[in-house]
């Protein structure tokens, strides 16, 4: 009786071919995945900013009085504070009675955030929404530009018109 028993495993050559193909596919996919992660982080930060600004506008209209938006610690990268002046002194009071929302940017350490108020670039922005939802505080148009560590057309820009309307521009050139 001549019976041959065949093993159900892989040969070393077959295993090496599979490992080589996996390495090639991974080397192609990883750079695309990093780009996708950076794009998603940038989009999340823009959504944080636009959400804070839209919230401030709606609160001003709902309350029928001015609502302020200020950069935290003088830098937009730290986030925004949305507040209203309950006692009418013109200053933010730290007793939490005036603060409506505190917004920190997602992964803000990875971004450069600059505000452009009628041509002058700065990171300390202070805006005021009126009871009608329009914006005051230094000009007719505000632009908030977000860029990460990439050069090229990867940035995003939020334009805030004096009427309080937000516009998003993608593919802004960053350096």
UniProtKB/TrEMBL annotation:
Keyword terms: Cell inner membrane, Cell membrane, Membrane, Methylation, Transmembrane, Transmembrane helix
Membrane topology: Single-pass membrane protein
Domain General secretion pathway GspH, first and last residues per copy: 45-163
Primary site of residence: membrane
A Pfam family the protein falls into: GspH
Record-annotated membrane-spanning stretches: 12-33
Domain of life: Bacteria
Location of this chain's protein in the cell: Cell inner membrane
Matches recorded under InterPro entries: N_methyl_site, Pilin-like, T2SS_GspH
Family, similarity comment: Belongs to the GSP H family.
NCBIfam families per the UniProt record, alphabetical: IV_pilin_GFxxxE
Protein name: Type II secretion system protein H
């Amino acid at each position: 009786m001549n019976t041959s028993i065949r093993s159900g495993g892989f040969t070393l050559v077959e295993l090496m071919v599979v490992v080589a193909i996996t390495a090639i596919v991974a080397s192609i996919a990883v750079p695309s995945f990093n780009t996708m992660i950076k794009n998603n982080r940038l989009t999340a930060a823009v959504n944080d900013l636009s959400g804070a600004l839209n919230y401030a506008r709606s609160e001003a209209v709902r309350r029928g009085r001015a609502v302020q938006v200020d950069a935290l610690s003088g830098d937009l990268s730290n986030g925004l504070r949305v507040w209203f002046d309950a006692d009418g002194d013109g200053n933010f009071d730290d007793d939490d009675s005036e603060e409506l929302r505190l917004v920190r940017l997602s992964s803000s350490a990875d971004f450069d955030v600059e505000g452009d108020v009628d041509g002058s670039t700065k990171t300390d922005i202070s805006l005021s929404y009126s009871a009608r939802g329009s914006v005051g505080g230094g000009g007719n148009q505000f632009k908030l530009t977000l860029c990460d560590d990439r050069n090229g057309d990867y940035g995003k820009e939020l334009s805030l018109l004096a009427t309080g309307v937000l516009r998003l521009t993608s593919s802004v050139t960053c350096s």
